[in-house]
Automatic annotation (TrEMBL):
Domain of life per record: Bacteria
UniProt domain GFO/IDH/MocA-like oxidoreductase: residue ranges: 134-258
GO molecular function: nucleotide binding
Gfo/Idh/MocA-like oxidoreductase N-terminal domain: residues covered: 6-118
Annotated protein name in UniProt: Putative dehydrogenase
InterPro entries: Gfo/Idh/MocA-like_OxRdtase_N, Gfo/Idh/MocA_Oxidoreductase, GFO_IDH_MocA-like_dom, NAD(P)-bd_dom_sf
Length: 390
């Protein structure tokens, strides 16, 4: 292999064509386009016009062509697992788009297959893990700078989509074609970051609206409450009908707090001691001063504002470059493909809780989830029901 990875782009829609531009513009110096595949003849014409590489009618033809060392799957969600398994089975490294799949049983099949091929690189496009702001926040939490997490809140409603968006294609916003709505289309990055930074919860309880403000079958409004154990809880709120939108993450620990606004800036508060220790050391005179406004609370903490520059395309191209570096020299992956199941599991648990009307454990019955999903696919009457595995 040369010092550049020959990448096959499977699916030449908005995302696939964007990755091709990143590569041709030199944003991913250790990658070159080896081939492109798309099932749409019109997209194949566009690909051939824009890039002087072999263009194939499907992923199987591309994998058989011998022109690539690795592939990235920019296709509808259900196909990520099938194509990644086919690629790994052909001895080709695989980078899957988010989400890794639609349901955990499907993604588990992919993880188990990938584990049988440790010589191949298996990654996932969690480009937000390449955001220096979230990398720093994770480091702060992991290092215990704000103590043990007591509460998390993420409201992410910057996904406004008009009705016309959902009418682009028949698979969009369907159970059988896409596998869900805002949880599987817009919010997978936040679901991944939430558990990546704050930890995996023990159980989930949710209130989800389906076709609330859009004429669709899947979810367009979500409120979920998670239980981390030990009294720690978290909330996740998202929707597609908030025209102005909000993106705010709060992580409260017993020794501080992190507040992220717009995924651009973060205010980190570090207490001088554990909050309960500060509370216990306050006498009645301190309480009187507190209520009279004579107590300066800033003596109990310090604050730091974090902000990082992020150029256009830098996060996605950085994941592509890291994926290629792992292939070429073993550089550790920013986002191992095996971790894609975590966000899928959270989305599944949120769905299942709303369908059953009760709290569900994070290690829910996967067969029950698939049965409930297939019931909705069957009701749509457009797409085939989904098997247990890929």
């Amino acid at each position: 292999m040369s010092r550049k990875v020959r990448l096959g782009i499977i699916g030449f829609g908005a995302q696939g064509s964007a990755y091709a531009k990143f590569i041709t513009k030199g944003l991913v110096p250790n990658v070159e386009i080896g081939a492109i595949a798309d099932v749409d003849p019109e997209r194949r014409v566009v690909a051939a016009d824009e890039h002087d590489v072999p263009v194939h009618a499907d992923h199987r033809s591309l994998l058989a062509g011998g022109e690539v060392d690795a592939v990235v799957t920019t296709v509808p969600h259900y196909l990520h697992v099938e194509i990644a398994i086919d690629a790994l089975g052909a001895g080709v490294h695989a980078l899957v788009e988010k989400p890794a799949g639609v349901y955990t049983a499907q993604v588990r099949d992919l993880n188990e297959f990938a584990a049988q091929h440790p010589e191949l690189t298996f990654g996932i496009m969690f480009n937000q893990r390449n955001n220096p702001l979230y990398q720093r926040i994770k480091q702060i939490v992991d290092d215990g700078e704000i103590g043990a997490i007591r509460r998390t809140n993420w409201i992410i409603t910057t996904w406004w989509r008009p009705q016309g968006y959902y009418e682009q294609s028949e698979w969009r916003a369907t159970w059988g074609g896409e596998g869900g709505g805002v949880l599987v289309n817009q919010a997978p990055h936040q679901l991944d970051l939430w558990q990546w930074i704050c930890g995996v919860p023990k159980s989930v309880s949710s209130k989800v609206a389906y076709g609330f403000r859009r004429d669709i079958a899947v979810e367009d409004e979500v409120t979920a409450v998670v239980d981390y154990g030990g009294g720690a809880t978290g909330t996740f709120v998202t929707c597609v009908h908030d025209l102005t939108g909000t993106d705010r993450l709060e992580i409260l620990g017993d020794k501080g707090k992190i507040v992220v606004d717009g995924s651009k800036t973060a205010t980190v508060t570090r207490l001088v001691a554990d909050e309960r220790e500060l509370s216990g050391d306050m006498g009645m005179d301190d309480v009187r001063k507190l209520f009279q406004g004579d107590l300066d609370p800033t003596t109990y903490y310090s604050q730091e504002v974090l902000e990082f520059e992020s150029a256009w395309g830098e996060q996605h191209s950085g994941v592509l470059e890291n994926f290629a570096a792992n292939i070429l020299d073993g550089t550790p992956l920013l986002a191992p493909g095996s971790e894609g199941i975590n966000g899928v599991r959270l989305a599944n648990a949120i769905h299942l809780s709303s369908w059953l009307g009760r709290e569900v454990p994070i290690d829910f019955d996967e067969s029950l989830y698939l049965s409930e999903l297939n019931a909705r696919i069957r009701q749509e009457g457009v797409f085939p029901e989904r098997p247990t595995g890929a």
